[in-house]
Amino acid sequence: GDPMKGPLARVGAAAVLLTAFALAFGREARADDGGTSSTFALIMGSNVSVDANLPPLKYADDDAATYLDLFRVLGARTYLLSRLDDNTRRLHAQAAAEALEPKRAAFEQAVAQITADVTRARDRQVDTVLYIVYAGHGNVRDGEGYVTLEDMRITGGDLARIVASIPATRVHIIVDACASYYLAYSRGPGGERRPLSGFQDSSQLASDPRVGLLLSTSSARESHEWDGFQAGVFSHEVRSGLYGAADADGDGRVSYREIASFIGRANCAIP
After folding, report:
1. 3-state secondary structure string, 108-145?
2. Does pTM surpass 0.90?
3. Contacts of residue 80, Cβ cutoff 8 Å, sequence gap at least 6
């Protein structure tokens, strides 16, 4: 793998192995980055899409709140965009206190703040790792995949321009949404497989040596959310892996190869 991308995460605790729907993964990377770095995480979870024809999801807000818990364990400075429902607010008081609306104004505010924070760290010669995490609706328009907040769409090109403006040493992008890779139409039940241009096809993202991608895909007839997890299945598996279950060699780090193998093994028995 490319050493610039580094391990996906350093981990502490172990987690249980899981089973879920069939999923796919993004690029593979493995490196020993050594030393210390400052970690930042932009976490977005939106049950409601700007596309009015898409039904609301149930657990994208729960995913956002539990990703906040994970990245706090990893020592990250976090920025959270999500509209938490009453149940999620009761379970995740810290997320409820911090969450901004998953809308354009808050998104632009968070990106500006992250850019300033990462730039300050760079100017102090501190290595930085940025995670951009999304859970919610994906869709496709004019052959291009995108994810949505309540009042805006974010395409792969948009994401590439944002990443290019933030001088992080390494960037990890985790997306749990349909159309995040190249095969799906809806994150919820239903949908059909079709080729499309998604995040991985953005020439800017693909050519940026700092960037690694961990992307879900959708099944044609199965839901990507599960009441038993109260979460998106892919997000639940990713978090479990980053808490330690995917650390196959026990070195305290999770590489892209390890998380891909973990998710693949968790789902290998599912048709």
Report:
1. HHHHHHHHHHHHHHHHCCCCEEEEEEEEECEEEECCEE
2. no
3. 43, 64, 65, 68, 95, 98, 99, 100
Q: Which of 80, 75, 67, 81 is nearest to 239 (CA)?
A: 67
DSSP secondary-structure letter at 100? B
Distance between CA atoms of residues 73 and 215, nearest Å? 22
Residue with tokens 């981990």: 11
Continuous segment of H or E residues that includes residue 81? strand 77-82
pLDDT one-digit tens code per residue, 39-97: 999 999 999 999 998 888 888 999 999 999 999 988 899 999 999 999 999 999 999 99
Residue 118: how many other CB atoms lie within 10 Å? 23
Two structure tokens written together for 188? 């919820």
Q: Report yes or no: 12 and 210 within 8 Å, Cβ to Cβ.
A: no
d(CA 94, CA 138): 27
H/E element, 78: strand 77-82
